[in-house]
Amino acid sequence: MQPTSSMNEEFLKKWQMGLQIFRPSIDNTSVHERKKAIKLSADVAMASLRKGTTCWSRALIEKTATEDNFLVRQMLSGIKAEALINKKLPKKIVCHRKIVRRSKKILRRKSKSASEEAAAKAKRLVKRRTQGLRNVVPGGELMSNDVLLLQETLDYIVSLQTQVNVMRSIVDAAEAEIDQR
Hints:
Blueprint: H1 5-26, H2 31-49, H3 55-67, H4 69-75, H5 81-86, H6 97-108, H7 114-136, H8 146-180
């Protein structure tokens, strides 16, 4: 799934808004502080595209609100910023009990054949990879349901692709302007 041009445009508008909010305080700062301002505003712009409907976007909003509450309130002004900022993420997002019970039964069985050992090894590999996703996707550590984690990961990837597209367009435009001079 590719990001749409409307997603790119909306991200750019929100990102510009965030950079304008930082503009007065960033002029006489270090490169590190400028980088942080660009990242914070890009994160909030990306999360605001989803309007807090995904776990990763709420996690990014919550994290950014602790770093710069004013920025988050300004950028989310049209989508009930107070509700999103004050809305705490659940400690765990759990799957249905039937699935949990069935998986516990499967785990209790002892693997003796080569195919069962291979299945156990594959299961460990999948578990390690999903843990890696949990560490990368904002709010991923709160998701115990692997299906939800994959859905959130796919949505997060599309949003990151939007961010990359917009930033790449800005760099291309800047290079074209330099070439014309």
